[in-house]
Amino acid sequence: MTRSKRRKMQRTGATSGVRRVAHGVPLASAALLAAMSTAYGQTAATGGLEEIVVTAQKRQESLQDVPLAVQALSTARLNELNVQKFEDVVRFLPNVSIDGNGPGNANIYMRGVVSGGDGNHSASLPSVGIYLDEQPITTIGGALDMHMYDIARVEALAGPQGTLFGASSQSGTIRIITNKPDPTGFDAAYGVALNTVSGGSEGYLGEGFVNIPLNERTAVRLVGWARRDAGFVDNVPYTRPFPTSGILPDNSKLVEDDYNDADTYGGRAALRFDINDSWTVTPTVMGQVQKVNGDFVYDRTLGQIKVSEVRPDYVEDRWMQGALTVEGKIANFDLVYAGAYMFRDVDGAYDYSEYSYWYDSLYAYGNYWLDNDGNPIDISQYVQQQNNFTRVTQEIRLVSPAEERFRYTVGAFFQRSTRSIEERYLIDDLNDSIEVTGWPDTIWLTQQDRTDQDTAIFGQADFDVTDQLTFTAGLRYFWVDNSLKGFFGYGLGYSDRAPPGPGSTDPRGPGSGEDSCVLREPFGPAGPNFDDAPCLNVDKGVKEDDYSIKLSASYKLTDDKLLYATYAEGFRPGGINRRGSLPPYLSDWLNSYELGWKTAWAGNRLLFNGAVFYQEWEDFQFPILGQNGLTEIKNAAQAEIWGVEADIVWQPIDQLNLTAGVSFLNSELAEPYCGYTYPGTSTPVAEQPCPVFDDDGNATGNFQDPEAPRGQDLPLTPQFKGNVTARYEFPFMSYDSYARGALVYVGERESDLLTFDRGVLGKLPAYTTLDLATGFGKDGWSAELYVANVFDERGETARGVECVVAVCGAQVYSYIIFPRIIGIRFSQEF
Predict the structure, then answer these.
(1) Across the strands, what pairs with 426?
(2) For residues 444 and 489, is the Cβ–Cβ distance under 8 A?
(3) Which domains can be identified in the chain, with CATH numbers?
(4) Rounded Cα distance, 711 and 750, in Å
(5) Which of 14, 34, 125, 635 would give a disulfide with 723, using CB separation of 3.0 to 4.6 Å?
(6) Which residues contact 303 (CB under 8 A, 6 or more apart)?
(7) Measuring CA to CA, how many Å separate 81 from each of 89, 627, 768?
(8) In the predicted model, what is the mean pLDDT of the chain?
(9) pLDDT tens digit string along 762-774?
(10) What is the 3-state secondary structure (H, E, C) of 607-625?
(11) CA dihedral defined by 630, 516, 352, 417, rounded to 10 degrees?
C-alpha cells in the first residue's frame, strides 16, 4: 500500500496567504564532500586505527558494527581539520550539502533530497534533523551555527532516520555530541587564532574549557569562545535611479569595503552528578550570540565580490538551550530521560530595494508609492524583522541489555515548537493612507504565530538469528499538529487597489492584508485583533497521524567485515498555505532501499565502507515564489534518487593517514511538475502535458507544458563529488610535527527545479578547493600555520534573486564560499 493511501489528514481554520522574505528565495546548495577518517580516529598505541564508539541507534556500539551509513568525526579529527563552525563540519561529511547566506543562515540536505527554496518561516519543516546531545535543535530558517569546540564527536546518519529520530529526520540526522564533565580528574585547554582573508579583512578566535571535579561523584565543565569571521564583500555606490521618478537612492553612508563580517561568542556549562553507581544526572546550559553584518553574496550585475545595498543589512541571532539528561539502571535495563527548553531570537534588517526597482520597471509601482502631498519618493524597500523561536522536547526510553540475543529500545517523545514572526516591509515617507494601520511607513506587515507539535511512540528491536545474521525492525507512530495564526499583507488603503503583478487577472491586484481580514460586520474588516496587527486574517492548521517503519538485515562475513540491507521510511509533516485560495500541502515521504558494507583490512589499517541506495520521494514539498511574490508550498509529485557512496581510510604506516571519498548521485523527477493541484484537492497534477481546468474545476480539454518535465534533475546536488585528504606526522628537532592537505571537488549543479527559473539563473559551475596546513608542538602545546582555499577559488554554493524570477531575474546573486584564508593558531592543554 502506498504511503499516500495510508495518510490520515484533518484540516482546520479558514484563510491563509504568505509573503516571501528577501533572503528566502530559492537557492542552490553545494554538497562539499570531503574525505574523512569516518570510522576510526588516530593511531592507536599498538598500531592501526583507533575505534570510535557511537550512539547512532541510541545505544553504544562500535561504528564499524552499526548496520547504517554513519560517518563520525572524533574530537581529534575535528581539531586536526580546524573545524570551527557548522559549515566546516559539513565540508567533511559525505552526502551532506549546505546552502545559505553566511553564518547562521543555512539549510542542510542529505543524499540529494532537496527541491530548493526551503527556510521561509511559514514553509516546510527541514528534511534533516540536527541534534545537540540528546535533544533536537532543528529550526526553520537555518540550522544553528554552533561554534564547534570541545566536541566529543559529530555523527552523520544518512538516509531516513524516522524510527528513532522522528519527522525532521526524513533524509538523515546530524548529531553533535559534547564532551561531558568528568569527576575523575582536572582537565583544561585553550586555543587562539588569527587569520586574514584574501581581498578582505582580518579575523580571530579565542576558545577554552576547564573540567573541575568537585568531589568523587560530581564535576563541572565550563566552555567559552569568541570568534570573528572576516569580511570580504564590498558595498559599492548605488548608480541606478528608479524608472518612474528618476530618484537615485543615496547609499554613500553605507559604502564600505569588507562589510560582511560576523562576530560569534558563547559558552556552555555542564554539571555531572553521579547519584550512585547506577544513576547519573547531567544538566547543561549552552548559549550563543552571533552578530552578522552584510551578505555573503555578490551581485552578478556588478562583478565578483560586490553588492550595492542602500539600506542596512544585519542580523543578531541569540539562542540558548537548557537541557537535562537522567540515565540509570532498572534491573539490567538502561533508562534514559532527556528534556530540553530552547529559545532562539533572530532580529535584523535587510535591503529590499531590488524588489522595488524591478516592480517599478515593469509595473510602475513608483506611481502608487508617494508621500502625503502626492510627490514621488525614494521607494527603496527595506525589512525589519523580529523572530522568536521556542522548543520544548521530552523523551524517555528503555534500552534492553546489549549482550542479549533479542534486544530492543522503546520510548515516547514529545516536542512543541513555536515561532513568533514580525516582519515589516518599509518605505520611508510613505503616504499615510496606504500604510498598514498603526504601523508608520509600513507597506506590508507579517505578524504571526506558528506552532508545530509532534508526539510519538517508537521502538526498535534486533534479533540475532545466528552469530552472523541479525534482523532489525523499527516502528514509530506519531501525531503531528501544525498551525499558523495571525496577520499578513497590505493596509486597507492599498490592498483593495494593489497594482498588478505577474499572473494577476484583476488590474487592481488581488485583495490582501486588511482587505482580506475575517469579516464580522457587513461593511469592511472587523475581525479580532492579533497582537498589534490590524486584525486576524489567517488561522489555519493541519493534523496528521501515521507511522513509519524500518526493516534491516545484517550479516557478518568475518569479525571485521559486515554487509547489510535496509528499507526505511522518512516522513515530513504537511502544512498550510497562507494564500486562502490554495489548499494545504501534503506530507511527503521518502522510501529508501539500501545495500551497504563495512570492512577492515590489513590488520585494521585499511577501511573500505560504502553503500548503494535507491530512494523514492513521494509528493515532495516544493516552495515557489508565486503570484505577487508570495511563497506557495505545493507538492511536486514523485522523484527518484539513485546513489553510490564510498570512503576509504588507509594508514600504510603509523605516521601517515590517507582518506578518500566519492559520491555519485542521480536525482530526477519521476513524474512531471505542473505547479498546481486537482481542483478542490491537495493532490498535485502530474500529467504530461498538464491538463487545464476552468474556474469551476472542469477540464477544458486544453493542455500546457509542465513547469518541470519528467526526468528533470533535482537542483542543488552534483552528480559527482569527491575528495582526498592526507596527514603525515614526523619529528622535527625535538618537536612533534605534521603536515596535512585536503582536496575537495564539487561538481556542476542545477540552480533550480523549474525549467524557466534555471534557465534564468544558470548552472552552478564545478569548483575545487585545496587546504594545506603544517604545525609542531610538544608537552601539551601546538602551533599551526594553515591556508584554506589555497587557489582562492570563487566557488558558488547557490544563486538566487530577490523576488519572483520573472520579475527580478535580470539581477542574480551568487552565494559563495570564503576566499583564501591564511591563519595561525596556537593551543595548549593542561
Answers:
(1) 382, 442
(2) yes
(3) 3-673+708-829 (2.40.170.20)
(4) 13
(5) 34
(6) none
(7) 9, 46, 17
(8) 86
(9) 999 999 999 999 9
(10) EEEEEEEEEEEECCEEEEE
(11) -70
